[in-house]
Amino acid sequence: MDSDLKNDAQDLLIRYGGDAFPNLFRSAKGSIVIDSNGREILDFTSGQMCATLGHNHPAITRAIKESCDTALHMFSGMIPEPVVKLAKALADWLPSPLRKSLLLSTGSESNEAALRLAKLATGGYEVIALGGSWHGTTGGSAAATFASDRRGYGPKVPGNHMIPEPNAYRCPIDHCRDSCDMSCLNVGLKMFDMASDGAPAAIIAEPVISAGGVIVPPAGYFDCLRDAAQQRGMRRSADRVRSGRCELFGCQARSCPRHHDTIQDPWWWTASSRDGHQP
Ligand SMILES: Cc1ncc(COP(=O)(O)O)c(C=O)c1O
């Protein structure tokens, strides 16, 4: 049975990521996953991105079950009561002036929506993203992704520009070592201004650049990015798919647009991290 399923996994599943583990997985709880041999393994992967509150967190599974028992999925003109309750809880918790939510399922969709909103609001279409960034696999999100997986998919959505990431260890412009003085940002913005069609729309960035090497930008980096956006009439979008939970627990770099920083500096909260086995 187990080897049949393993063969089926090979034969029947399409994957876009790297190699999968040799065994399948049967269940998970907290920070433990159990593979198809019954072996318990401490899950160091999910802390990074998938289940930062632990697998099958009881509060989250309870909420999923309640939704299944009541109103789970409907025509988009029918708003289920639990959706409004969640929006209210978020509105109460978010710093002013942030109040409204657009609830989506995946990080790619969230970034896609944020970029579309920025295009709608500005009338422009150009997007600045950082080298090493990972924003997703849908059209607009993938076009703003510069970590990997760009090759083989043909032309991208026009208007996406990459600026060098603030990597003090491997400075992309071979300028700094161990401490980033943000020359990369200045160079990147100059290059953008030279290449721009005059239709700027958005700057998108991860507070900690994840797939590109877990790069924490230097203090003041996001202030400079904010100024750059304001000077060009661009909207800003912080992709917190991976860093969101970490930020909430306050374990992130001081320079990043964390919850309390957003009071003065309302970066859009593009996407929060995925907790307890659910987006
Ligand atoms: C920073 C970041 N943004 C966006 C995404 C895309 O999220 P999803 O896979 O839910 O579409 C990911 C996925 O790993 C991510 O790490």
Residue windows where pLDDT falls under 50 for at least 5 positions: 248-256, 259-264, 275-279
The number of helical elements comes to 8
Strand content: 5-15%
Structural category = alpha/beta
Helix content: 25-40%
> What order do the SSEs take from the amino end to the carboxyl end, as H and E?
HEEEHHHEHEHEHEHE
- The neighbouring-strand order within the major sheet is 5-4-6-7-8
Task: Characterize the biggest β-sheet.
Answer: 5 strands, parallel
Report the end-to-end length measured between terminal Cα atoms: 30 Å
- Name the CATH superfamily classification of the largest domain: Type I PLP-dependent aspartate aminotransferase-like (Major domain)
Q: Which ligands occur here? A: pyridoxal-5'-phosphate
Backbone CA Rg = 20 Å
Please report the total strand number as a whole number. 8
Oligomeric state of the chains in view: single chain
